[in-house]
Write a structure and sequence with these properties.
about 300 residues, alpha/beta, UDP-N-acetylmuramoyl-L-alanine:D-glutamate ligase, eight-stranded mixed sheet, four-stranded mixed sheet, 9 helices
């Protein structure tokens, strides 16, 4: 059977200069894991508005399970205004009081998550106390054997030390980037070069794996068994929206498949490079990348 994977949290429309694109880290993660061969679903909440209907159509069209996407009768579907800097880096303005801020724990979601292989969650969907409680309860519903990926994904002011620490305590895998690691250092008294800081986080939270993405300089993976560095791949960047989510998808599936750190690195970097070379977070994958983990 294919791996069963869930993205929990925000879903929103990125209002890019060239038009709107469906996004949000959990949705991007689900899209990429589905494209790589997994059975993927999203646990989120959308409005009963036009964008909510379009969200369901887009997800279903990508083969993503939407039976746990909740509908809110009052709050609108999430949106984010996005402007791209000269280097292709996105600048987000994420709008508040939207449907995914009202995510709930449902019996159906708990039942589904009790049989999941991996789950990905972050800080943005935990920007309100009620949503944070819901996200963490849903993550706790996964089995002890599940890969629990905490994608730090710091956005604007929508995070707190308390949410970060509780999420790390739930996670088995942490994914963060080169600007987010320095943000964690004061909170957890991390010292030394990045490799040493990752080792300190591994030990403190008893994590199985940490992925540090380094932009054009590649990535570093750290586990209790060792470290792996990849120098990155050359790419003509169109935009970087969704590249980190693609990396996380490859990392998660590689972990489930039992790949070594050195086996995960080139594949995860190649998938991220593909996304950077195209507009939007979810470009179609070429045959060389698609369905890599299809098992049935």
């Amino acid at each position: 059977m294919p791996y069963r994977i869930a993205g929990i949290g925000e879903i929103l429309w990125d209002l890019l200069p060239e038009g709107r694109q469906l996004g949000g880290a959990p949705a991007n993660f689900a899209y990429q894991t589905r494209a790589l061969g997994a059975d993927s679903l999203v646990i989120t909440r959308v409005g009963t508005d036009e964008l909510g209907e379009e969200t369901l159509r887009r997800l279903t069209g990508a083969g993503i399970d939407v039976h746990l996407v909740q509908r809110d009768p009052v709050a609108p579907t999430g949106t984010a205004s996005v402007q791209l800097a000269a280097d292709g880096q996105p600048q987000f303005i994420i709008h508040e009081d939207v449907a995914w801020d009202r995510l709930e724990v449902t019996p159906a979601a708990v039942q589904t998550l009790s049989q999941i292989d991996a789950v990905c969650f972050g800080t943005l969907a935990q920007r309100t106390p009620s949503a944070s409680a819901a996200v963490q309860a849903l993550v706790k519903a996964t089995p002890a054997s599940a890969v629990r990926v905490f994608d730090l994904n710091l956005r604007q002011h929508y995070h707190s030390p308390q949410v970060i620490e509780r999420s790390l305590e739930l996670a088995t895998v942490l994914k963060l980037n080169e600007t987010e690691l320095p943000a964690l250092a004061p909170q957890f008294n991390l010292a030394g070069p990045p490799k040493d800081q990752l080792a300190q986080l591994l030990q403190r939270f008893e994590l199985d794996l940490i992925a540090l993405t380094l932009g054009s300089k590649g990535s570093m993976l750290a586990s209790p068994q060792g470290f792996s560095h990849h120098p990155g791949l050359p790419v003509k960047v169109v935009d970087t929206v969704g590249a980190g989510d693609a990396f996380t998808a490859a990392l998660t599936l590689g972990r489930l498949a039992g790949w070594s750190l050195d086996e995960i690195q080139p594949f995860a970097n190649e998938l991220a490079r593909h996304v950077c070379a195209h507009a939007g977070a979810t470009p179609p994958l070429p045959p060389a990348l698609a369905h890599r983990f299809r098992t049935s």
